[in-house]
Amino acid sequence: MKALPHFGDGTVRSMSTGAAAGFAAAVLGILGYAFFGPPGGAVAAIAAAAFLAVIVRLGGIAIGNAHSAPAASATGSGEPKTIPPDRLDALTGLANANGLSAWLSEKAGRMMEDGRGIIVLTADLDDYPQLEKRYGTTIADAVLIEVAKRVSVFAGGDGIAARTGTDEFAAIATVVPSRATELAEERAGQMVEMICRPVELSSQTVWISGAVGGASGSPRDGEKVLERARRAIVQARRLGRGRFFVDKG
Known about the structure:
Blueprint: H1 17-68, H2 97-113, E1 117-125, H3 128-135, H4 137-152, E2 160-163, E3 168-175, H5 180-195, E4 199-200, E5 205-206, E6 210-217, H6 222-239, E7 244-247
Parallel strand pairs: 6-7
Antiparallel strand pairs: 1-3, 1-6, 2-3, 4-5
């Protein structure tokens, strides 16, 4: 079956104005000829074409306007919800430390109502100052952007990822509390493996490594869980390069 034509305004029309008018002219022309002879058929056809052209044109405009009207925002204000600039990291597009704290404060109540727990994973690159000195700011920034993408995977659809320091990142995901410790261990291992993959740039390949710390707990204790995950990085570094540690306290 031939697809219906699509127009730039999102409208799908099954028949153009000219086609509709021509069709009506043919039908009424036949009826006019049957009842009034040739002159009547011609008059009926012309009248039908003019009338249908106006109707179809108005109908097309109405449909087009309906499709092009902007949808209301989720807040019901009619305007898209924006994140304040002071909560965003300009380089990576993730939340910054301020944005992460605000998210924890604003979302904790709802997560508690939904019976959810949180997993916090923090990541820190190895020897970043040396990397920046060796490759320069442009390459170093490209590495940070790539690491940000990798970290954001672990936030899930209802969590948050943030760049909390020069080469420090965090991801928070909501989980069923009974599985929080198990998932924190599993995902911390996955994150450190992903972070330690080389960064493929158009000009060269940059080899990196890092450490990951994890912790889990209640959303109302979000800042404390975040601090536990940060301390876990220290434990991870004691195990060697490219390792992770989860605080199960």
